[in-house]
Amino acid sequence: MARGSELPPESFDEILAWFNADREVAGDIYVQLRQDLTRIFTWNRCHDPEWLTDEVFDRVARKVHDLRQTYEGDPRLFFYGVARNLIKENPKKIKSHVPLEGAELPAVPSHIENDTAGMREDCLQHCLQQLDSDRRKLILAYYAKEKQAKIDHRTELARQLGTSVETLRVRAHRIRLTLEQCIERCLDRKIVTTK
User: Fold this and answer.
1) What CA–CA distance (Å, rounded) separates 162 from 141?
2) Long-range contacts of 24-33 (CB under 8 A, 24+ apart)
3) 53 vs 46, 88, 115, 119, 143, CA distance in Å?
4) Rounded to an integer, what is the distance from CA 36 to the centroid of its chain?
5) What is the pLDDT of residue 43?
6) 110-190: CATH topology
7) Are 164 and 9 in contact (CB under 8 A)?
């Protein structure tokens, strides 16, 4: 889930200001809008509803300064329009992938598959221990829940840390990249030693 760019916090603040002058009311609108967008993408059977919701906010954030000056009406409608465009783009991206149905792939022996899963788990535990305590707690908390509970939990986690959900997402993404690189190196070492 690599992001193309990191948006400055002032863009997020400007989105909130566009929703409502009262920051608390704006925050409630933001949380509800995220939930609504995620549901819309889910209903439309999009592959990664959360990523697409992030993409909607990223696209709007890039233009929010000008939008606040020119757009008339409920800002949420603009977000829904961006979501509708993403839904139209989504099938195009899916069609560019080659389907594997009918392709004969060599079967992976179950003992090798189990060994690989075990190695991944060992490497994950090893790499988690390589993180400092704060980063380890953050990444474990970030991925602790699923579905709607995950969204609510991350919102609460951001509030506890005194930061925005976007900033929390960027922090978690950076930690995840570090873990993925560590796991890859660890797996490479394990595979070399088992040959």
Assistant:
1) 15
2) 29/76, 31/151, 31/155, 33/76, 33/79
3) 11, 14, 36, 33, 17
4) 16
5) 84
6) Arc Repressor Mutant, subunit A (1.10.10)
7) yes
Tokens 């608390």 correspond to 24
Residue 191: in which H helix or E strand, if any?
A: helix 165-194
Residue ranges per structural domain of the chain: 9-95, 110-190
Measured in whole angstroms, how far is the alpha carbon of residue 4 from the centre of its chain?
Answer: 12
8 A C-beta contact, residue 112 and residue 145: no
How far is Cα 174 from Cα 149, in angstroms, rounded to an integer? 22
The token duo for 167 is 């900033």
What is the rounded distance in angstroms from the CA atom of residue 10 to the CA atom of residue 60? 13
Distance CA 186, CA 119 (A): 9
C-beta separation of 123 from 187 below 8 A: yes
Read off the pLDDT of residues 145-174 as tens digits, 9 standing for 90 and up.
887 888 888 999 999 999 888 889 889 888
46 in Cβ contact with 37 (< 8 Å): no
